[in-house]
Design a protein that fits this description.
Layout: E1 5-9, H1 13-24, E2 28-32, H2 36-45, E3 61-64, E4 75-78, H3 82-93, E5 102-105, H4 118-125, E6 131-135, H5 140-144, E7 149-154, H6 158-168, E8 173-178, H7 181-203, H8 208-228, H9 239-250, H10 255-264, H11 269-274, H12 282-296, H13 301-311, H14 316-324
Parallel strand pairs: 1-2, 1-4, 2-3, 4-5, 5-6, 7-8
Antiparallel strand pairs: 6-7
Helix pairs in contact: 3-4, 7-8, 7-9, 7-10, 7-12, 7-13, 8-9, 12-13, 13-14
Length: about 325
């Protein structure tokens, strides 16, 4: 499989970081953004000042606000917010004329109501094309600072995953491959919910012991719900489960952790989201995860309390008390 051209859909921090990374590797990249004014500014300055100030894109990265400009790429990478991925995929579908084009989802989320993963949506819209997913402990700003990281590409087609590994990987962006695409996507999506919880813990100043316990029980809950949704238990202990959970729960650079911390300090959710330029994926994913857990009859006490804070106006201190009042029982992993 030859991948000569790559299109990245989504000019936020993550999409821009990938364009910087792969552009520096000498690849021909198209970076699409929906905001034409921002796109024009990036084209002029070679810098996405709203999301990654100080990071210069090479001339091999063509920035555009025309979705049709991306339709002829060999590899099309989705880095859009999860809530608009289906809409953008449907728009792109009208332009696609390459039957061999490969789709890679770097979006971490679960669709509300349907409970579908991002790769499932892409398969539904592009049934004749191969689809893969990438996820891992990959903070955009650290990638754009050329700090080493690892990630995993999941695909049912082993040869496809191996090809993507060789084309997109580097010494600073180490890629592993796996056929466990369900676990990879669910790990990357669900960890954002628990990052909100970890941030709330920090906002309430509950200390390191409390946070370590919370993150450990979050992993157990992630595995329990993830297995019920079709994932493999062992795979959740890899880069896109445990790895991504650790970085998002502990890093000040994690958008979801930051939202949770502000909630824990008493700020209203509407005020927090109004002040942000980017989407914190944990907010819509909490709603989707809560709905999936109800449908599958899976106990998810941490997800339930994050949902109560976000969607039922429960105060973080009250949500904490609800967790602490739960019956003490044997530890189950």
């Amino acid at each position: 499989m030859k991948i000569k051209t790559t299109a990245i859909l989504g000019a936020g921090a993550w999409g821009t970081a990938l364009a910087w990374l792969w552009g520096n590797n000498g690849r021909q990249i198209s970076l699409w953004g929906h905001n034409s004014a921002r796109v024009a500014h990036i084209k002029k300055t070679r810098e996405n000042g709203d999301y990654l100030p100080g990071i210069k894109l090479r001339r091999s990265v063509d920035v555009t606000s025309e979705l049709g400009d991306c339709a002829r790429a060999d590899l099309i990478v989705f880095v859009t917010p999860s809530i608009v991925l289906r809409q953008i995929a449907n728009r792109l579908q009208k332009f696609i004329d390459k039957p061999h084009a490969l789709f890679l989802s770097c979006t971490k989320g679960i669709e509300y109501r349907t409970g579908m993963r991002m790769s499932q949506i892409l398969r539904e819209v592009f049934p004749a094309h191969r689809v893969a997913a990438l996820s891992g402990p990959n903070l955009a700003v650290e990638i754009a600072q050329n700090l080493p990281t690892a990630t995993v590409i999941g695909c049912d087609d082993v040869d496809c995953a191996t090809s993507l590994q060789s084309v997109l990987g580097s010494s600073r962006f180490r890629i592993y491959t796996s056929q466990e695409i369900v676990s990879i996507e669910l790990g990357g999506a669900l960890k954002n919910v628990f990052a909100l919880a970890a941030g709330i813990s920090d906002g309430l100043k509950l200390g390191d012991n409390s946070k370590a316990a919370l993150v450990t029980r979050s992993l157990a809950e992630l595995v329990r719900l993830g297995v019920a949704m079709g994932g493999n238990a062992n795979a959740f202990y890899g880069l896109s489960g445990a790895g991504d959970l650790i970085v998002t729960c502990y890093s000040d650079r994690s958008r979801n952790h930051t939202v949770g911390e502000r909630l824990g300090r008493g700020e209203p959710l509407a005020q927090i989201t109004a002040s942000m330029k980017a989407v914190a994926e944990g907010i819509p994913t909490t709603q989707s995860a809560w709905e999936c857990a109800r449908r599958l009859k899976i106990a998810t006490p941490i997800i339930d309390q994050v949902y109560a804070v976000l969607y039922q106006q429960t105060k973080p201190t009250v949500a904490l008390e609800e967790l602490l009042r739960r019956e003490q029982k044997p530890e189950q992993l």
